[in-house]
């Protein structure tokens, strides 16, 4: 018999607060990277976009030495 998790107001509130917290963190990172783009690369978005792709791939590759996380998409 499978256990079902009862969705309570506390469970819902906790999960919504985690989602909002993550969104706010990414929003802050996004703004910081925009400022760095303006200061370091004179608002040349192509170089920061390519750099972001390379850094993102490295972050996904380095822990397990594979890119299996991309397959999940």
UniProtKB/TrEMBL annotation:
Keywords: Membrane, Transmembrane, Transmembrane helix
TM regions (residue ranges): 12-33, 45-63
Protein name per its UniProtKB record: Uncharacterized protein
Organism: Candidatus Staskawiczbacteria bacterium RIFCSPLOWO2_01_FULL_38_12b
Source taxonomy: Bacteria, Candidatus Staskawicziibacteriota
């Amino acid at each position: 018999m499978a256990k079902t998790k009862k969705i309570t107001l506390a469970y819902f509130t906790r999960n919504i607060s985690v989602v909002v917290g993550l969104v706010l963190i990414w929003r802050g990172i996004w703004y910081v990277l925009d400022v760095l783009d303006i200061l370091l690369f004179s608002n040349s978005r192509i170089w920061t976009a390519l750099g972001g792709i390379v850094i993102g791939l490295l972050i996904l590759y380095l822990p397990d030495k594979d890119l299996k996380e991309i397959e999940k998409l």
